[in-house]
Amino acid sequence: MEAKQLLDLTIEAIDERHGEDIEAYDMAGQSILADYYVITSAGSNRQLHAIVNAIVDKIHEHGQDDYRIEGNRDSNWLLIDMGDVIVNVFTEDARDFYGLEKLWRNGKKLELDLDED
């Protein structure tokens, strides 16, 4: 699956589960780890896990089975490594604490077309 298609499916899944403050960065040429980095917040630990499950379900529907999840059911931060796309899902407090967006300031922040319902 192309990296951009994987990114689009990821953003769609996050938006469907009402992830908050979704940001995506194009890191091609800036990072050797992935082409895209995504970050979002969840209002609760339960929502955090629902977002991660939605992403996994969405990519499975499209034949993408190559991924790894870091964190556990008690974590306030889960990372999904899908190769070309890395997703960080935080509770709001954990996101504020870690401030990962600062690490990606050399990347291009993408404009996202999200449903506004």
Automatic annotation (TrEMBL):
The keyword Transmembrane helix does not apply. GO terms for cellular component: cytoplasm. GO terms for biological process: cytosolic ribosome assembly; negative regulation of ribosome biogenesis; negative regulation of translation. InterPro entries: Iojap/RsfS/C7orf30 (IPR004394), NT_sf (IPR043519). Its main location: cytoplasm. It is found in: Cytoplasm. GO terms for molecular function: ribosomal large subunit binding. Keywords: Cytoplasm, Repressor, Translation regulation. Interacts with ribosomal protein uL14 (rplN). Belongs to the Iojap/RsfS family. Functions as a ribosomal silencing factor. Interacts with ribosomal protein uL14 (rplN), blocking formation of intersubunit bridge B8. Prevents association of the 30S and 50S ribosomal subunits and the formation of functional ribosomes, thus repressing translation. This is Ribosomal silencing factor RsfS. The gene is rsfS.
